[in-house]
């Protein structure tokens, strides 16, 4: 190897020289790092590293000196500030000035200083944390002392050698040159960077791998050339050039990033490459995002109107003044003061001057403090959202994060939600569910039962906690704990519950690192059949191995089973570690690395080595040595029974001597005591993705356990065979384009070079070797066919499918491939592309082994959340990268799709096909829903779930002529078709179709498509969009949407980083939107409107006065009051109201999601409301002006004695106005209003009593004091506010009585006592009827419930019964019976063809798109109504039902009506490989969860069942009654 | 903040369960519906009605009399004379007779009224120097720039009191004669002092410091009278030497700028110490003799004498009682409307509650 590189090194060094010369020219391209120790004075001029940033970080924006100018400069970026400063400066011009110039500066200075203080404080906090970080210690090599010395982080410089110990945090970006790890690895945890808690391996630079002794910095004399600092965490390229001229590539695997933590590695040494601000972590560190909310956009329009009003007022005054001057002609009246120069001013000139003066006087109209107030209120809102207990997730100890501070109110106006599926709707906790190997399905029934148990446990636990929730709030903490206590006592009673998720929760709280390994995922109950096969297989293998027979003697299916599990175990990147101890590895006697060169390959694969390799003792001893540190860590299930899965893994402890005597020699540095200490701990698998871990755990359940992974070797422990080491030749990592990953290994038993591939079924199936005609081929075809069938079944069950395949390479094949691959690997340009191509070349002609189905469980509360969000008028689209079938079934499971509703599926192969499909769908929709007038529109609406002039569309409909209807339709579109549909020519049609569907499901969509869909909807429909997702693939969509929400789940933090809000769970979205969104929106909208009103009202007072002072710009309100009125006297109450006001309580908002439409339709702040408020403001100011005017007219009153009462009256009126608008009065409201009034009088009294000469030219000495002694002042104070507020008060009272909007009704609900309200909400028809009927007619209502046929859980039987009773009651009332009829027989009565069939031919391609539909639905309706009817006979279940069926019968529960049973989904798969599956009728339940539930229901005790049933009954009857009541009352 | 750092337990980031943080502060949420609002309406209406009636009765018993003397009686000549600034130095006296129909009982206030005189113009109002008016020596000689152009004469002598307001001071002197019979003429005695605010007289307006040897005139040495004035400020009142300088009551009253272009300012209060005036101002014929100095023609203004009684809430003004009565009526109307609404839709509202 050395020889080879030496040779090529010669040529390379020449290149380097050339390169160096070139480099000097284009310095900017790269960075060269020398070691600092080569240079005496590290700070000297000759140090080539001196230009690079040092490691001192300074995230502060300002220094002491630069603070003022810089902060001011930044603040003046805001236009409003510039405007106000301009006005203040205008005051310094004597001809136009209105106020004492210094005073005029006061508000601007005040606003600027408030902001400045806020900035200063933030900056100071940054400064403190910087200081803390800068003064952390690390070990830096010191040349003079020839050892590592402690230094502060800030003293670290580029080119320094630093030594890192385990669990230390990296101070800078460091190139790894040495590691104590025998494999020259270093493990780091990157949680602080990307939130991924799994360990990542980093490798020592290749040139230093071979060093035997400890790395000595003094001997280092290489030069590193690498990229300029950039912010791409996943990219690093460069070379290291040794003195010898040898050049080695550097990759991201060699770089340790600042902020990461060293794990599992005793010691590592590295050279600093990037320091301080040039580190990737710092470059990635951008501050919070700033967006402008919809409300603010609307507000800005109105601010603009305010400017217009201001200008009109000023212009009016100016003209008035000109005319006034003009009327005196040449004779100047005695009171007309000449200009200071003593010259006359012509009317025109003085009009112009006056215009400017008026701008100053009336400046308050532009609400200077509005911007600051909004900021304050938003910060408070964010604080409260942060503090919400209900948005706190105990399991992860995380709560909601608001990352964008200024769009809280947008949350209240969302119209479309775009959701990712995996990890967002589902938990992204992958659980191995079933598999098929060699065409045989293993259903893992026991496993299914076990999983069901967890599920049941969860719901029970929720019951407990929800009981706690009903207690008074204060006690909820304790009650919660008591809930837990109850739980524990239960768990002692019934053994099998101990391992429930509650336990898992507790466990995961204790150790954060168990993110992927809750017991639910880890414990897999093996299928007995498969277990038998595994055992048989391995025993045969053992036999064969000991007798040195050929492996061919094993039957092919057993062989497949064996390979299948090997593939599961090794085809991944899972790292094995034990949780307590850092991995301590034994230095290997011979060092091997993955094949890197051809020579290496040839050397390694010479026959002699192969034979020696087959000597099993050597290979297994190798394995043992390596794994001896965790020794007994490999845990094995002693029994596969479900009973034991909950307790800790029952570890089969092997006596230590067993191991030792079996494998000699014992490594010299092996520590027995340590090993003993480790006895207890189990192995931990750290995987990059949860499905990998799930598969590894599954394999372990079959005793095929992964026990160690090294860069070049994977060790697997097998029954009978013991530990087997697979030489890992290559790992071709997973990427989203290939959708698969492969490993190339040398099989220890067969010595064949084997490729194991694991990947998405659609991809793998295309890569399967075409079957030959012989009998082997036949078998393979059969396997293929069967597997495909099972895959479809899995998908129909909502399972994630993966195919496992293998391929055996001949040595020649391998050699030729290796040649290319190595070229690709060493390529400098286009390395990624070449590697990709190389991988493609390898992964062909595979042999299918089997497939797995992994279940991704729905998160808690997802269906409920979706239901209530939908009731709130939100359109929910799911954009997922998953398969169509999986996605559809998850959609059914989370109630996104309704079995009752029709499904339009768009799958097109070409642009034209897509166009035709869209056209036809559109026609179909129009034909069905629009051009088909129904006799009874009410019924039609009811039936189809149509929402006339849906709120979702109504804002958009401004641009479109007719309001859009949202039908009870679902649209499913796949990625390819989506690509066509998103084309410019088709996007309008696509939108037209999509928007008329209730739910849209985009499968197989790429991240880019996701963002394109969001963009399309947002831009074309002009709606507010929210995107929610958890993974890196959702980032683009999150960024495009108006509000991006990240789920801080398991797929790292990228989504969270890009998001505006980060939630721990999907279900929190409900409260975030329905409650906080609604509140934030209504608070802010009301506050903004109030602000406009307040300023207009106050300013108008002064404007009216201009008619009495010759339009001269004088004001009866003293300048002090004028300036501080907004800033101080009237500021606090509105802030309090803007922060705390609750129009409807949180409970009601959640119970009646319809109230959310208030925000969607922007009903709190419509454009006309601005003008209404303006008119009201002008009316009120007229009253406040003219009542005092007429009261004082013709008297000897002086200006300020008259003006001060007006100010007081205005203050009272404004505060009382706020009082009318305030919906909830807490003590803070009272205090703030009292404070405002007190403040005004205090300030005014002090001001009027202080210096009589200081505030020239105005002089209000003793005015207020005198006024307070005059009765007329009080008389005015009584009558004026009453007269001014009478209209508004009257209007509000009328509104509350005559035409209350839903919010009013919700508020009235709030006033009822708690228990009463609950009763009303759940039972009273009248109540909700009135609610429904009170919706303004244009405000559409979404069906308050969905028909009760929806919930098919057997435990709901009672609910059905009761709701049927209710229904009968409803029917007995005369009117609604008709609509009931309509609903009961909606589809069946219509026609029998509920399938939408869009068939058409195009270029001989038949694209047909069938509808999942509801044929037997009516029958099922019957069985809901008449529980005894034998409708269950129509159900067809494919597997494992008989047992459970009998159980079901015995428990006397009604036959399960799972939604799929009702509607066999017809799917036309277009997989080109499988022409025979043209029409496949799937009769499996689409959601296996539901089916699952049926079974575990039996096992649960009757009591809990009843309770659940009651609960469901509750909600059921509620929702149904809501619908009824809409018609039953007030008709 | 500190709390967050100290808690490191498994649930350390759990928010506090306090009423404030969970937004569960006890709150009163009034709902504005007919039945909640109606009582308020009726009560308010009643209150306003009662107040209005009370005020109305009070106002009914007050009298006010205005005598416009701009060009009435013999003042036509003076009015024309004052049209031209050239004749401003020539004195002019005239008289106007008027009839008081009813006795003004109690205290009677005499005002001079000006119409169309904009004392509330912004630049006019600013044109004064309060610091000078409190008698500060420095400001006396160096008036504030606000007074410009009435701060210095062209030759640089400062003006005291400076500014347009002082400069344009009303300088007619009025004498009211009571004519109980055709022959008899009794001068109506007026208090010409104590007509300004106490605080003005004692705090806002002070003379420069004087003592027995250092007279007021000496104190004002080096300043000159305003352009339009006939006498210097220290000789404003020739009858009472203590009423001179900045603390002259007429000056103080004038300096308090009126809010509206039509205003009146207190001239004197009836001295009820003697004669027929002990009970107030008796009904009968009166003559007003005027020392006519103040020109009003240039701004089309009017001058008048206003004789008025004062009630506990001000002068004779019918507006306030009417305002109360109208407001009361309006509230009543809305209340009635609401009541009908309540009766008609009330049942629904009730249902909502039940």
TrEMBL record, chain A:
UniProt-annotated location(s): Endoplasmic reticulum membrane; Membrane
Domain P-type ATPase C-terminal: 1056-1301
UniProt feature, compositional bias: Basic residues: 14-31
Residues reported in the UniProt entry to bind ATP: 420-422, 692, 734, 758, 800, 880-882, 1004, 1010, 1033-1034
Example GO BP: phospholipid translocation
Keyword Zinc on entry: no
One GO term describing the cellular component: endoplasmic reticulum membrane
Domain P-type ATPase N-terminal as annotated: residue spans: 47-102
Top EC group: translocase
Membrane topology term: Multi-pass membrane protein
Record Pfam families: Cation_ATPase, PhoLip_ATPase_C, PhoLip_ATPase_N
Reaction catalyzed: a beta-D-glucosyl-(1<->1')-N-acylsphing-4-enine(out) + ATP + H2O = a beta-D-glucosyl-(1<->1')-N-acylsphing-4-enine(in) + ADP + phosphate + H(+); ATP + H2O + phospholipidSide 1 = ADP + phosphate + phospholipidSide 2
Keyword Nucleus found: no
Protein name as catalogued: Phospholipid-transporting ATPase
Source organism (scientific name): Onychostoma macrolepis
Organism placement in taxonomy: Eukaryota, Metazoa, Chordata, Craniata, Vertebrata
UniProtKB/TrEMBL annotation, chain B:
Entry's Gene Ontology cellular component terms: endoplasmic reticulum; Golgi apparatus; plasma membrane
TM region(s), chain numbering: 37-57, 318-343
Protein keywords: Membrane, Transmembrane, Transmembrane helix
Domain of life: Eukaryota
One annotated GO biological process: phospholipid translocation
Subcellular location: Membrane
InterPro entries per record: CDC50/LEM3_fam (IPR005045)
Signal peptide stretch: none
Pfam family, one: CDC50
Family, as annotated: Belongs to the CDC50/LEM3 family.
Protein name per UniProt: Cell cycle control protein
């Amino acid at each position: 190897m050395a020889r080879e590189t030496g040779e090529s090194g010669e040529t390379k060094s020449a290149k380097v020289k050339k390169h160096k010369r070139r480099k000097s020219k284009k310095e900017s391209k790269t960075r060269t790092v020398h070691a600092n120790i080569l240079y005496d004075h590290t700070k000297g001029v000759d140090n080539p590293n001196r230009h690079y940033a040092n490691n001192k970080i300074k995230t502060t924006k300002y220094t002491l000196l630069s603070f003022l100018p810089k902060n001011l400069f930044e603040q003046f970026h805001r236009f409003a500030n510039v405007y106000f400063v301009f006005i203040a400066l205008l005051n310094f011009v004597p001809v136009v000035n209105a106020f004492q110039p210094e005073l005029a500066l006061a508000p601007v200075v005040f606003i600027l200083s408030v902001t400045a203080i806020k900035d200063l404080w933030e900056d100071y906090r940054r400064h403190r944390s910087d200081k803390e970080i800068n003064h952390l210690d690390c070990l830096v090599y010191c040349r003079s002392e020839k050892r590592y010395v402690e230094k502060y982080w800030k003293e670290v410089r580029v080119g320094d050698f630093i030594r890192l110990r385990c669990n230390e945090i990296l101070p800078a970006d460091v190139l790894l040159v040495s590691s104590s790890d025998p494999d020259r690895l270093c493990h780091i945890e990157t949680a602080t960077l990307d939130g991924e808690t799994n360990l990542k391996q980093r490798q020592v630079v290749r040139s230093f791998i071979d060093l035997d002794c400890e790395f000595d910095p003094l001997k280092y004399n290489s030069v590193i050339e690498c990229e300029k600092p950039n912010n791409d965490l996943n990219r690093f390229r460069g070379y290291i050039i040794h003195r010898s001229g040898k050049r080695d590539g550097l990759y991201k695997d060699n770089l340790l990033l600042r902020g990461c933590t060293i794990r599992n590695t005793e010691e590592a040494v590295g050279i600093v490459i990037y320091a301080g601000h040039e580190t990737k972590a710092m470059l990635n560190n951008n501050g919070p995002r700033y967006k402008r909310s919809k409300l603010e956009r609307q507000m800005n329009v109105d601010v603009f109107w305010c400017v217009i009003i201001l200008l009109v007022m000023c212009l009016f005054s100016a003209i008035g003044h000109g005319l006034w001057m003009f009327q005196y002609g040449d004779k100047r009246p005695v009171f007309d003061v000449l200009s200071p120069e003593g010259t006359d001013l012509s009317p025109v000139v003085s009009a112009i001057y006056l215009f400017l003066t008026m701008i100053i006087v009336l400046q308050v109209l532009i609400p200077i403090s509005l911007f600051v107030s909004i900021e304050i209120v938003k910060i408070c809102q964010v604080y409260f959202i942060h503090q919400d207990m209900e948005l706190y997730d105990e399991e992860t100890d995380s709560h909601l994060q608001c990352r964008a501070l200024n769009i809280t109110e947008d949350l209240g106006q969302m119209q479309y939600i775009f959701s990712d599926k995996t990890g967002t709707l589902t938990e992204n906790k992958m659980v191995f569910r079933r598999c098929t190997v060699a065409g045989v399905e293993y259903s893992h029934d026991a496993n299914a039962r076990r999983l069901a148990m967890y599920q049941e446990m969860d719901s029970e636990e929720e019951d407990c906690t929800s009981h706690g929730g009903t207690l008074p709030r204060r006690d909820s903490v304790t009650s919660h704990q008591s809930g837990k206590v109850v739980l524990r006592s239960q768990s002692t009673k019934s053994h099998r519950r101990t391992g429930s998720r509650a336990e898992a929760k507790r466990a995961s709280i204790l150790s954060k690192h168990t993110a992927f390994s809750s017991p639910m995922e880890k414990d897999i109950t093996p299928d007995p059949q498969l277990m038998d096969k595994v055992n048989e297989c391995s025993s045969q293998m053992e036999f064969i191995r000991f007798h040195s027979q050929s492996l061919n003697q094993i039957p092919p299916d057993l062989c497949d089973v064996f390979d299948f599990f090997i593939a599961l175990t090794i085809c991944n990147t899972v790292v094995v570690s034990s949780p307590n101890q850092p991995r301590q590895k034994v230095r290997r006697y011979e060092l091997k690395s993955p094949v890197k060169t051809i020579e290496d390959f040839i050397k390694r694969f010479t026959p002699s080595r192969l034979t020696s390799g087959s000597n099993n003792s050597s290979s297994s001893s190798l394995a043992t040595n390596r794994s001896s540190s965790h020794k007994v860590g490999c845990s094995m299930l002693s029994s596969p029974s479900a009973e034991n899965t909950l307790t800790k893994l029952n570890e089969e402890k092997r006596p230590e001597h067993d191991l030792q005597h079996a494998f000699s020699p014992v490594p010299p540095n092996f520590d027995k005591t340590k090993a003993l200490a480790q006895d207890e701990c189990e192995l931990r698998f750290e995987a990059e993705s949860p499905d990998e871990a799930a598969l590894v755990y599954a394999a372990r359940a079959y005793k095929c356990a992964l026990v160690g992974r090294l860069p070049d070797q994977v060790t697997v422990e097998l029954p009978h065979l013991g530990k087997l080491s697979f030489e890992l030749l290559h790992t071709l990592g997973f990427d989203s384009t290939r959708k698969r990953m492969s490993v190339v290994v040398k099989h220890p038993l067969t010595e064949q070079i084997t490729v194991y591939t694991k990947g998405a079924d659609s991809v793998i199936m295309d890569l399967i070797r075409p079957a030959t005609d012989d009998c082997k081929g036949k078998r393979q075809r059969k396997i293929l066919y069967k597997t495909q069938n099972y895959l479809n079944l899995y998908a129909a069950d909502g399972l994630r499918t993966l195919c496992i395949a293998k391929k055996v390479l001949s040595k020649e094949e391998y050699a030729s491939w290796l040649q290319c691959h190595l070229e690709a690997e060493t390529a400098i340009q286009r390395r990624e592309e070449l590697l990709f191509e190389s991988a493609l070349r390898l992964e062909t002609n595979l042999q299918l082994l089997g497939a797995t189905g992994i279940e991704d469980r729905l998160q808690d509360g997802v269906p409920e959340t979706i239901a209530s969000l939908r009731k709130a008028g939100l359109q929910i689209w799911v954009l997922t990268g998953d398969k169509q079938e999986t996605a559809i079934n998850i959609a059914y499971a989370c109630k996104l799709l309704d079995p009752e509703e029709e499904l339009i599926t768009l799958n097109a192969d070409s642009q034209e096909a897509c166009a035709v499909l869209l056209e036809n769908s559109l026609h179909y929709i129009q034909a069905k829903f629009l051009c088909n007038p129904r006799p009874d529109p009410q019924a039609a609406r009811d039936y189809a779930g149509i929402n006339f002039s849906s709120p979702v569309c109504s804002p958009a409909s401004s641009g479109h002529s007719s309001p859009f209807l949202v039908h009870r339709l679902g649209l499913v579109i796949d990625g390819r078709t989506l690509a066509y549909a998103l084309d410019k020519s088709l996007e309008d049609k696509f939108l037209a179709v999509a928007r008329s569907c209730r739910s849209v499901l985009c499968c197989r969509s790429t991240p880019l498509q996701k963002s394109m869909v969001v963009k399309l909807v947002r831009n074309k429909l002009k709606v507010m969009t929210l995107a929610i997702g958890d993974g890196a693939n959702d980032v683009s969509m999150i960024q495009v949407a108006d509000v991006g929400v990240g789920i801080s789940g398991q797929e790292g933090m990228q989504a969270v980083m890009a998001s505006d809000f980060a939630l721990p769970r999907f279900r929190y979205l409900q409260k975030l939107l329905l409650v906080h969104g609604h509140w934030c929106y209504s608070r802010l909208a009301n506050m903004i409107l109030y602000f406009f009103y307040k300023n207009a009202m106050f300013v108008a007072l002064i404007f009216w006065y201009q008619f009495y002072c010759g339009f001269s710009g004088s004001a009866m309100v003293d300048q002090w009051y004028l300036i501080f009125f907004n800033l101080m006297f009237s500021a606090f109450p509105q802030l309090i109201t803007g922060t705390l006001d609750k129009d409807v309580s949180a409970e009601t908002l959640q119970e009646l999601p319809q109230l959310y439409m208030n925000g969607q339709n922007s009903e709190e702040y419509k454009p006309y409301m601005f003008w209404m408020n303006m008119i009201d403001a002008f009316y009120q100011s007229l009253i406040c002006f003219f009542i005092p005017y007429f009261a004082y007219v013709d008297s000897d009153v002086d200006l300020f004695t008259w003006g001060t009462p007006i100010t007081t009256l205005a203050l009272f009126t404004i505060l009382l106005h706020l009082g009318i608008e305030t919906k909830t009065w807490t003590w803070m409201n009272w205090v703030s209003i009292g404070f405002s009034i007190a403040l005004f009088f205090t300030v005014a009294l002090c001001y009027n009593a202080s210096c009589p000469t200081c505030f020239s030219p105005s002089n209000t000495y003793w005015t207020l004091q005198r006024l307070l002694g005059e009765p007329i002042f009080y008389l005015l104070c009584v009558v004026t506010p009453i007269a001014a507020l009478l209209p508004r008060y009257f209007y509000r009272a009328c509104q509350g009585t005559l035409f209350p909007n839903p919010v009013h009704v919700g508020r009235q609900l709030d006033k009822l006592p708690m228990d009463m309200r609950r009763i009303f909400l759940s039972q009273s028809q009248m109540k909700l009827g009135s609610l429904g009927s009170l919706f303004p007619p244009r405000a559409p209502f979404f069906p308050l419930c969905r028909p009760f046929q929806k919930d098919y859980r057997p435990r709901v039987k009672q609910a059905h019964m009761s709701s049927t009773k209710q229904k009968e009651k409803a029917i007995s009332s005369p009117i609604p019976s008709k609509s009931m009829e309509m609903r009961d027989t909606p589809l069946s009565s219509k026609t029998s063809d509920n399938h939408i069939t869009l068939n058409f031919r195009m270029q001989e391609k038949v694209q047909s798109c069938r509808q999942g539909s509801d044929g037997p639905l009516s029958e099922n309706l019957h069985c809901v109504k008449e529980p005894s009817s034998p409708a269950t006979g129509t159900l067809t279940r494919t597997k494992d039902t008989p047992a459970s069926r009998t159980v079901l019968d015995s428990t006397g529960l009604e036959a399960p009506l799972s939604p799929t049973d009702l509607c066999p989904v017809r799917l036309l798969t277009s997989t080109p490989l499988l022409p025979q599956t043209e029409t496949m009728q799937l009769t499996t339940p689409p959601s296996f969860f539901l089916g699952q539930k049926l079974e575990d229901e039996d096992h649960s005790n009757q009591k809990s069942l009843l309770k659940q049933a009651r609960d469901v009954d509750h909600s059921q009857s509620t929702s149904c009654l809501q619908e009824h009541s809409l018609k039953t009352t007030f008709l | 903040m500190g709390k967050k750092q100290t808690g490191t337990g498994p649930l350390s980031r759990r928010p506090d369960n306090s009423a404030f943080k969970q937004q569960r502060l006890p709150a009163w949420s009034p709902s504005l519906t007919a039945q909640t609002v109606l009582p308020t309406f009726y009560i308010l209406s009643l209150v306003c009605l009662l107040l209005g009636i009370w005020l109305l009765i009070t106002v009914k018993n007050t009298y006010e009399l205005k005598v416009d003397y701009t060009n009435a009686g013999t003042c036509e000549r003076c009015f024309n004379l004052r049209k031209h600034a050239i004749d401003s130095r020539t004195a002019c006296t005239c008289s106007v007779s008027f009839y008081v129909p009813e006795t003004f009982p109690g205290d009677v206030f005499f005002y001079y009224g000006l119409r169309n005189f904009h004392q509330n113009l912004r630049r006019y109002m600013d044109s004064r120097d309060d610091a000078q008016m409190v008698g500060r020596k420095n400001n006396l000689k160096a008036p504030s720039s606000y007074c410009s152009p009435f701060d210095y004469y062209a030759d640089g002598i400062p003006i005291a009191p400076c500014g347009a307001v002082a400069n344009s001071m009303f300088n007619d002197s009025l004498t009211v004669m009571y004519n109980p019979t055709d022959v008899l003429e009794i001068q109506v005695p007026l208090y010409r002092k104590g007509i300004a605010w106490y605080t003005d007289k004692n705090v806002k307006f002070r003379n420069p410091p004087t003592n027995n040897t250092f007279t007021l005139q000496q104190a004002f040495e080096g300043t000159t009278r305003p352009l339009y004035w006939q006498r210097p400020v220290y000789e404003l009142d020739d009858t009472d030497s203590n009423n001179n300088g900045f603390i002259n009551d007429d000056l103080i009253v004038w300096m308090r700028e009126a809010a509206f272009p039509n205003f009146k300012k207190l001239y004197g209060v009836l001295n009820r110490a003697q004669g027929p005036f002990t009970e107030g101002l008796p009904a009968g014929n009166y003559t007003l003799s005027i020392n006519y100095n103040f020109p009003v023609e240039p701004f089309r203004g009017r001058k008048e004498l206003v004789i008025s009684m004062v009630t506990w809430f001000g002068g004779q003004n019918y507006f306030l009682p009417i305002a109360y009565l109208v407001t009361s009526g309006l509230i009543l109307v809305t209340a009635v409307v609401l009541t009908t609404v309540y009766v008609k839709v009330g049942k629904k509202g009730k249902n909502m509650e039940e």
